[in-house]
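User: Structure please.
Assistant: Input sequence and predicted structure:
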Amino acid sequence: MSTTTERPTASAVRPLTAVRATDADDVGGKAAHLGELIAAGFPVPDGFVLPAEAYRAAMDAAGVRAALAAGHDEARAAPPDRLAELCAALAGQVRAAGMPPALEEHVRATWEGLGRPVVAVRSSAVGEDGAQASFAGMNASFTTVRTADELVRRIVDCWASLFGERVVAYRAARGYTGEPAIAVVVQTMVPARCAGVAFTADPRTGERGVVLIEAALGQGEVVVGGTVEPDTYEVAVDGLRLRSMRVGVQTHEVVRGPDGADVRVPLDPERGAAPVLSLDGILEVAALARRVEEHYGRPQDVEWAHDGEQLWLVQARPITTALEERPGGGGPAAVLLRGLPATPGRVAGPVRVLHTPDQGAALQPGEVLVAPLTNPDWLPTLRRAAAIVTDTGGATCHAAIAARELGVPCVVGTRRATTTVTDGRVVTVDGSTGEVLDGDRTTAPAGAAVATVPAAPVAIRATPAAPAQVAPAEVAALGTEVHVNLALPEAAERVAARPGIDGVGLLRAEFLLTAALGGVHPREVVARGEQVRFVDRVAAAVTTIAKAFAPRPVIYRTTDLRSNEFRGLTGGELHEPVESNPMIGFRGAYRYLREPQVFGLELRALARVRERSPNLHLMLPFVRTRWELEACLELVDASPLGGQRGLQRWLTAEVPSVVHRLPEYIGCGIDGVSIGSNDLTQLMLGVDRDSERCAEVYDEGDAAVVDAIERIIATARRHGVPSSLCGQAPTRRPQYAELLVRAGIDAVSVDPHAVDAVRAAIGRAERRVLLDAALGPPSGSR
């Protein structure tokens, strides 16, 4: 500790009650937010802050401030192999300088004036917890500080963390220049019975109409640190009603012991699997978070704790993604339409309202396609659209799936798009929030149709048109493979070049056939006697994809014709029945047995592809019964494909009967099972995923759906065949990845834009599983 006698002024320590948002330049974002919330009457624990000026004065007093500033400039520009050494030297200088005696005396006196509480000591770097950058978790923070000596030491540690390796690198990457400085918050700790976080916009999807809450027993550090699986609650803002709940499994809690120190307490299975919050508790947290958002006028990331009597607001900061910002256009945007967010991204352009696919030629480059709905015969038009808006459909309807693969922002289920907007009107389509806004609300000049960074967390950003090339060795290895869903041959080379993709888990035949056959119904092609054309074009399209991904596997799911989607194709009215319930109608494996011509041509095309690309494999969709499967496999065996060596025969698990029959199916010769979570969820819950009226009922996280998925994975493992999941659940819900990893799934297949996010979620899940295995079961359990 420095022995200098220079005395900083007493104003170097400021009560949080005296701090306001306007003080952020000196006390940092964290302290400024806390002081502002206290002044507004929010329940925030008491404390004080050492402003950035206290740090500067301390370094001045020790005579090292100039050297630290120069060293920081050197570290910012240093190559990676020198950064750690330079940062360690800078942090060492700060610790050697220490805290001047006068400041130390004032810190001790202020802490004693609070009643010598157990406190948290947290960095509040200048620029931290702002709207553009959070520095979250980078500077040091310490909980359960119990003595004055420890308090002084931890404040100096916070100062030293200003020169942490990742902090300096982050500051350089964000373009921060000049001398860095740091404030430190000292705040009374809540003896939490439970704690967690709340987001007033869904950080996974960008949805603004929901409060997302995570909750765990004991101190909130287990949530932020990811050491337990917290409960997750979704509360609809409209009327503050619980929309969904997923109860986590918690093995332990961290609580304050008799001496004030943190204690890790094992939880018995019954308590660890029970909900953390009651319904009233959930709504209380949601209401508090909403009040914070209303105070600041923008979405907030809130940390909360409950001591059994009082709900406390521990921290609040803006969500550091452009969730609700609509740059350009000058002023607030008028929301013309609201629907379901289908593909992230924001695009502005003139509207083109089309009612049938044969009107597609009218769509001009850069225009926003507005249609009642889309099906495969719209595909040529969708390729040219700057954005897509539909009246009907859900988040996994045809328009949504096609748009995600094309990388086109999309909003579905608006109910009245075709009657609300007219040709030529300039709108902005926000595929992350599900909104269609009046005018150009992008940063581009008026009238230009330019895709911008989507208004959503990095985890769900659309794939850039030209992704950076990264060597496979630079991608962290995972125990669970990540595959992609694909259908468009022109996207294959670009997607295959991206790092971290282990193959194609779902090659959708319906999209591919529609494009290859020029919008003509497959059975109409047969009726015209153009079987050779069918095989040639389908084989060419599939070859493009198989070659791009070789030697990685490509799983081709044979055509799952549904009458409502294919009746609009050329000739479709001659070959498709009119069905009241096409979802559970004439489709899948059963259709192959009654109309084997198209299936036979597909098998011939696949056999041709596999002569040069043996990485191609077969998957049969929508199998209801064992006899259907046996009959379909006989057709495969009798075809040119059946005799090829190394062919894998997969099955999609999307009909609930597969939960019971999977052992029989494997006995018939099935080599792998891919869970189609979209259809499985629909059939388990009896809800049409394309119905905007019933969208909130569609929930892949429902206990019945989760149980079915876990049983399918367990059966596959027990019989020694691989399992995969292709659906939107891991993309829409990052926590779904951990569910699948814990169940023992072998692979997850997602849309290309979601690969990075899902890989990250799987990596976190695998680390947690390994940590749990290392810690072993709680003491006293069997």
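The CA atoms of residues 620 and 651 lie 5 Å apart.
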